[in-house]
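F.,

This is the one I mentioned.
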């Protein structure tokens, strides 16, 4: 069971290249229950790539992801959703006519806000 001090999400030794461009090299990222993190870095550092791997948009080349302490393969966005992982994308992916809450739950048809 996940407790207050155990990581909800752990990404270990994540590697990702696009063609010959090595974007993520041996990246570790861990989030404890209730924590809020800011992922900061220069343009092109790989922040979105790391989060897209967690969301199942991209596949990692190497490393592992643990959800509530269990090694979890996130092969697509549906698998991420099943694991309780959601993502709100950067501004160009948002719908200005919807509320913040509606944007957050845009892809979740079981929520009515
Ligand atoms: N689908 C893709 N195909 C090829 N290269 C990609 C792809 N997605 C990202 N990249 C490359 O990976 C690197 C990291 O990009 P990423 O978008 O993860 O950076 P970022 O840290 O989110 O940047 P920003 O601050 O601009 O949002 C960049 O060199 C980018 O060109
Ligand atoms: Mg980005």
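My design for it:
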């Amino acid at each position: 069971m996940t407790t207050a001090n155990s990581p909800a999400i752990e990404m270990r030794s994540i590697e990702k290249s696009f063609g010959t461009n090595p974007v993520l090299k041996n990246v570790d990222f861990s989030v404890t229950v209730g924590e809020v993190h800011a992922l900061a870095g220069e343009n092109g550092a790989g922040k979105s790539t790391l989060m897209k791997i967690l969301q199942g948009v991209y596949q990692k080349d190497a490393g592992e992801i643990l959800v509530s302490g269990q090694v979890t393969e996130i092969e697509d966005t549906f698998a991420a959703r099943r694991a309780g992982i959601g993502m709100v994308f950067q501004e160009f992916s948002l719908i200005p006519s919807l509320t913040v809450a509606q944007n957050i739950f845009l892809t979740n048809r079981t929520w009515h806000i």
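The domain at 7-87 is CATH 3.40.50.300 (Rossmann fold).

Talk soon.
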